[in-house]
């Protein structure tokens, strides 16, 4: 399995960047992970960048109105998606204006991290932490209490 976390915007805040990097490193103990940062800009350019970065992946759009999953359900969800096709799962996180409608509509599924709206930087941290939690759940490791 390979995971791609594709998000609009850069994480410039050092402590937040460090936290994201820590969880990405933890997830990499289990599966390959790429993080792709897309520059914000005109919707057509953002859409094209998402399409390029997520080509061939099973795409999961993070949307506030997407399907809500518990952590154990998310773990099983990631496991099922990783078994599809080439085993590449791409998570798409929008910027201030959300995801381009075409990207969300073309995604294989839309999920929600919360009914709260998060800034893209914080959504990325929550996602990578949940990916790490998913890996520990799937292996029955003690992190996921």
Could you say how many structural domains there are in total? 1
Give the overall form. Answer: globular
Any guess at the CATH architecture?
A: 3-Layer(aba) Sandwich
Number of helices: 5
Adjacency order of strands in the biggest sheet: 2-1-4-3-5
The class by helix and strand makeup works out as alpha/beta
- The average pLDDT score comes to 95
Biggest beta-sheet profile? 5 strands, parallel
- Binned strand content: 15-25%
In CATH terms, the superfamily is SPOUT methyltransferase, trefoil knot domain
Spell the H/E element sequence. Answer: EHEHEHEHEH
How many β-strands, per DSSP?
Answer: 5
> Could you say what the CATH topology is called?
Alpha/beta knot
- Residue stretches low in confidence (pLDDT < 50, at least 5 long) are none
* Backbone CA Rg: 14 Å
